[in-house]
Fold this sequence. Notes:
Elements: H1 9-20, H2 24-36, H3 40-64, H4 71-79, H5 83-114, H6 122-142, H7 146-149, H8 151-169, H9 186-197, H10 204-208, H11 216-245, H12 248-253, H13 258-303, E1 314-315, E2 318-319, H14 320-335, H15 338-363, H16 368-395, H17 397-421
Antiparallel strand pairs: 1-2
Amino acid sequence: xxxxxxxxxxxxxxxxxxxxxxxxxxxxxxxxxxxxxxxxxxxxxxxxxxxxxxxxxxxxxxxxxxxxxxxxxxxxxxxxxxxxxxxxxxxxxxxxxxxxxxxxxxxxxxxxxxxxxxxxxxxxxxxxxxxxxxxxxxxxxxxxxxxxxxxxxxxxxxxxxxxxxxxxxxxxxxxxxxxxxxxxxxxxxxxxxxxxxxxxxxxxxxxxxxxxxxxxxxxxxxxxxxxxxxxxxxxxxxxxxxxxxxxxxxxxxxxxxxxxxxxxxxxxxxxxxxxxxxxxxxxxxxxxxxxxxxxxxxxxxxxxxxxxxxxxxxxxxxxxxxxxxxxxxxxxxxxxxxxxxxxxxxxxxxxxxxxxxxxxxxxxxxxxxxxxxxxxxxxxxxxxxxxxxxxxxxxxxxxxxxxxxxxxxxxxxxxxxxxxxxxxxxxxxxxxx
Length: 433
């Protein structure tokens, strides 16, 4: 392998941590606390365990099929080049779209507070979120690298800030707020695990780097488990510190503003403003990264026959896939709430990762231990989805119907594409599929 293209274990760990610790935790911490209350830290810990188990499946697949294709490659390997793998890949694309929409709505919340908008103002938040998507789409079409150049710097700054914030917040902690008798009933806590899992989904990019590792069998497991372990530690510490530092009403009613309100409770207006500015910058760069990533996804899926060819058509410095993704994101931003989008993104991601886990179970047959752990990952993901479905059916049935709509749409779209375009779905290494 060319030395210039290889990635070290440290580099892969940085890639994984950077992909997980982004703007999403600002929004997801508060949304999870709405459901789990003072047990939100346990929800993040449980989600981290599910991420570790799923990460094991990704490691096993990445070692055997080192490819930049990641999820798409594994789906084609496991289920063959056909309707099912194609529909699953489109579902993966929808999950990425939902994630971008969640971050955009969070940006709208933070930006509106930063410019002094008081109270609830969903219209202004949606206008700000839409404006950011449009502006970043235009920058990407124009070929500007302005925001992209700041991406890694913002990720490092965000990681450092959240770590320091967690440690500093412990000074104001009241341990009594963490007592077990303050936890809600079991169902909301387990249901929130589906939500908190969304904050870990970036770990999948580590397996994408397997193709560029000198020794994937040795380096990929180290990078995967270390990066997930670092993020579990950060999220659980942050959740514990926040829960112990704010009162119950602030914890369960603040939503996306929870960490910002915790900063105000501990450090006054200076802390509030500092974290608010950090959240605005983080969401901006995160959405830009999401648009870039989805452009690559749509181009690849179109090239491989899993999306219409127009997604790969060039427009200025990018492709039509960018504009289509931005348009779909704008629809979600303006017709769904942050709570709904976060819930849908979590469930959709869990569905895709369940399919990857089950695919790994079908493919990996060389060890009882491996198959046992992979089966455990399947059970964990499916259980989380099942509890989410039961809880959502009782508390927000509209969200469940939207989820089912996305699920059915992905496979119907793939079926129509194959029937009317006569395009064969190809794997990354089609001769091996």
